[in-house]
Amino acid sequence: MTIQIECPHCHAQNRLDPARINDAPNCGACHAPLLTGAPLAATKDSLPQLLKHSKLPVVIDFWAPWCGPCQQFGPTFAAAAKDMAGKMLFVKVDTEAEPEMGQQFRVRSIPTLLVIEGNAELERVSGAMSAGQFKAWLMQFI
Ligand SMILES: [Zn+2]
Fold first, then answer.
1. Of 15, 48, 87, 138, which is most buried by a Cβ count within 10 Å?
2. Residue 133 forms part of a structural domain
3. How far is the CA of 10 from the centre of ligand 1 (A)?
4. Confidence band, pLDDT 50/70/90 cuts, at residue 99
5. Is residue 16 situated within a structural domain?
6. 10 among known catalytic residues
7. Is 9 within a domain?
């Protein structure tokens, strides 16, 4: 079973074996790293596979395009994804495009940040954080 992943660089759709999720796969179109240096946009199909197969802790940003604080927090999340590539997997879930996932993870406000490892939720925080707060929060999981 493969999952569909949009390249964060050229937005090409890639099919990927989820067992390779921690092997730094490259985009088939532009050959840039698919999963390092940029958050990965997950869908209701790809997220369960990512969570199942990732050997790294997964941090999920539940956001929506209409949410101002989410937009402000976006660059902080992206910068952390770049800094901590190879230590954690950074995933974004658009709760407007994927409303089932917000319900499944009982997300009541956005942005909500969730850390999951081995299918267990370690911690969640609702509301945007500063870059310093976010980094300090993440350090406890690596
Ligand atoms: Zn690409």
1. 138
2. yes
3. 4
4. very high
5. no
6. no
7. no
The string of pLDDT tens digits covering residues 16-75 is: 888 888 788 899 999 998 877 789 889 998 899 889 989 899 999 999 999 999 999 999
pLDDT of the residue at 2: 86
Q: How far is the CA of 124 from the centre of ligand 1 (A)?
A: 31
45-74: burial string, b at 16+ Cβ within 10 Å, e else: ebbbbbbeebebbbbbbbbbeebeebeebb
Q: Using a CB cutoff of 5 Å, list residues around ligand 1, an ion.
A: 7, 9-10, 12, 27, 29-30
4 falls within a domain: no
Integer angstrom CA distances of residue 69 from 2, 34, 57, 61, 138? 33, 26, 24, 12, 19
Domain count, the chain: 1
Residue 64 one-letter amino acid: A
Domain range holding 105?
A: 36-139
Alpha carbons 64 and 86: distance in angstroms, whole number:
26
Helices (H), 43-141: 46-53, 68-83, 99-104, 131-139
